[in-house]
Write a structure and sequence with these properties.
Blueprint (H helix, E strand, L loop, with lengths): L3 E9 L2 E8 L8 E4 L2 E9 L3 E2 H6 L7 H5 L2
Length: about 70
């Protein structure tokens, strides 16, 4: 069975970051420990996507400029 991931906005102090995390952790208001750092709170969650989709498109941002700059 494939894991589903959600794109989420996390906040720690004044820092906000957008990351993909497994769906089971993607609950608004939940506090997380990421890479040995406590204190990240899930602020916003997106639509769950399949693991294949997420990892298959993780570098799409590198081609965004070619697609958008006309």
């Amino acid at each position: 069975m494939s894991v589903k991931y959600c794109q989420c906005t996390l906040k720690k102090g004044d820092i906000e970051d957008v990351v993909w995390i497994p769906e089971k952790y993607a609950k608004e208001g939940k506090w997380l420990k990421i890479a040995e750092e406590n204190g990240w709170q899930v602020i916003k969650t997106g639509t769950p996507m399949s693991e294949d989709y997420v990892f298959g498109h993780e570098r799409d941002f590198k081609d965004q400029r070619k697609a958008s700059d006309i």
